[in-house]
Amino acid sequence: MALGPRLDIRQSQSLVMTPQLQQAIKLLALSNLEIETFIGDALDANPLLEVGDGAPGDGDIPGDEIETRRTTLESSPVDRLIGEGQGEADRPLDIDSAAIDRDRDPGDADWGRDLRLGGGEDGPGIDERGAGPLSLADHLGAQIGPAAPDPAAAFVARHIAGLLDEAGYLTVSLRELAADLGVDDHLAQRGLDVVQSLDPTGVGARTLSECLALQAREADRYDPCMARLLDNLDLLARGELARLKRMCGVDDEDFAEMMGELRSYDPKPGLRFDSGGGDPVTPDILVVPGADGGWTVQLNQATLPRLIVNRSYYLEMRGACDDKAARGWLSDKLADANWLVKALDQRAKTILKVASELIKQQDAFFREGVSQLKPLTLRAVAEAIEMHESTVSRVTSNKYLHCPRGTFELKYFFTSGVGSTGSESGASAEAVKAAIKQLIDAEDPKQILSDDTLVDLLKDKGFELARRTVAKYREAIGLGSSVQRRRQKALAAVR
Q1: Cα angle at 437 between 432 and 439, to 5 degrees?
Q2: Alpha-carbon distance 256 to 54, whole Å?
Q3: Hey, which of 20-29, 154-163, 278-287, 454-463 has the most confident mean pLDDT?
Q4: What 3-state class would DSSP assign to 145?
Q5: In the chain, where does the domain assigned CATH 1.10.10.60 lie?
Q6: In sequence order, what DSSP letters do the residues of 258-318 get, joined into one string?
Q7: Quick check: helix, strand or coil at residue 294?
Q8: Helix (H, G, I), strand (E, B) or coil at 49
Q9: What single string gives the DSSP state of each residue in 352-365?
Q10: Is the dihedral of CA 115, 120, 123, 128 positive or negative?
Q11: Whose CA is closest to 399, among 304, 465, 469, 484?
Q12: Prior bond to 47 cis, omega within 30?
């Protein structure tokens, strides 16, 4: 058989993502503030774009192609969603402007289908979803309830926790603190004792020596020799080790061991936590109670400029174009402007559609709180609104929802489920955490609840959990084990 070159014709299909479709996908994942920056760049690059005021006018997208950016959810059932029913006059977002007829107004072309995105993505696990770095005050606040011997001491301790500096030190005197709160010095001292019994050990100290002494007591190394060492840290700073060793009354081996112990302590325990100076969160979606008992959902227009195409300026410039290259450039700019306006409108509809379904699925949370948060997956929302999972994932990334209960990241509403005897779909992990915290906050200091006891109590509430799962959730909300809590409360009672 002879070998030689040959020409063959083959026909095949392949999916090609145009630059415009890639940009549309990126727009979905951007927050409103990021969209504002993106629009500013687009305004600089395209002379046909401008920021409009008020409602859409006749010079923008035709009225029959505009759907409202606001929706009201009925209380029962909640089924009025945004973005349903695409008209046949919709242009697809994946049309490349290079393929458009240069002499034809792209605004007259057909707009087709919904933006359906592929490449499925998994949602984050429960441990990967957080509300940002934990501040020292928040960390201490979660421990004060179990550690305080009475409400008065807990009140003073919470006030002190808010006064600590970044390193965890108390920079005001107890007398001044007592005067500000209108309490006696004894109660102020009890509140400080509560704070100094919390984790991390050493917080609430007024001096470096006191901070290190608290850690030495925790390690059961605070003997008279260590006390003299900590009382004379100025000699250590000046390098007078021989004198310091004589004052402590120890030999070289014991002194070296004490120095090694001292080096293992943390002089600034508060620096392990965030200082609380992070950027404020600006919500992308606003949810308010409706007059009919439902929910009104809308985009935060304060951070979302409205973009329009100046068609009058386009006609004026087109009349002044004499050569084909200039007319082609102008047609490209008009196509880009029309695409961007439509893409932003489609993005708004998609966000509201997803947010509306989230509120429908988690209606009980918005009415009763975190204890009623249900387990929810990206797939469940995607199937309900007939979109791809990855579309829902992109829509819920980097976006926040503000409601009467506070501001939450959209990812917060997607939680894993745990066993529940009262619901076929199970209970949300966040609801279980809230139940665990409630039980621990209410426990008797003389009868600390073990994880096994928590399992039984949670079972009475309808939660079927293993002991290791309870321990995992307890640690996730910053609560110590039964041994740690018993020691903290015993120390608080002694002081």
Answers
A1: 95
A2: 75
A3: 154-163
A4: helix
A5: 416-494
A6: HHHHHHTS-S-GGGGSB-S-PPPP--SEEEEE-TTSSEEEEE-GGG-PEEEE-HHHHHHHH
A7: coil
A8: strand
A9: HHHHHHHHHHTHHH
A10: negative
A11: 304
A12: no
pLDDT band at 86 (very low <50, low <70, confident <90, very high): very low
What residues are paired with 308 via a beta bridge? Answer: 50
Q: In whole angstroms, give the CA distance from residue 458 to residue 439.
A: 9
Determine contact, residues 288/407, Cβ cutoff 8 Å. no
Listed in sequence order, the DSSP H helices in 164-310 are 174-181, 185-196, 208-218, 224-231, 233-238, 241-248, 252-263
Tokens of 285: 């979606």
CB of 287 within 8 A of CB of 68?
Answer: no
Task: Note the pLDDT tens digit of each residue in 422-470.
Answer: 554 556 677 778 888 888 888 877 788 888 888 888 887 777 777 788 8
What local confidence, expressed as pLDDT, does residue 65 receive?
32
Residue with tokens 């009225």: 63
Instruction: Return the CATH number of 416-494, one of 1.10.10.60, 2.120.10.30, 3.40.50.300, 1.10.10.10.
Output: 1.10.10.60
Helices (runs of H) and strands (runs of E) counted in the chain: 20, 10
Amino acid found at 171: T
Q: What pLDDT, in 10s, does the model give residues 110-148?
A: 333 332 333 333 334 434 444 456 778 888 888 888 888
The SS3 call for residue 129 is coil
Distance of CA 140 to the CA centre of its chain: 20
How many CA atoms lie less than 13 Å away from 221 in the CB half-sphere? Answer: 18
**Hey, what are 243's tokens?**
């004198």
C-beta of residue 448 within 8 angstroms of C-beta of residue 482: yes
Q: Which amino acid is residue 332, in one-letter code?
A: D
The residues, ordered by sequence, that sit 6+ positions from 54 with a Cβ below 8 Å of its Cβ are none
The pTM of this model reads 0.50
pLDDT of residue 85: 34
Token duo for residue 256: 């070296």
Q: In what order do the strands lie in the sheet with 417-420?
A: 427-428, 417-420, 463-464
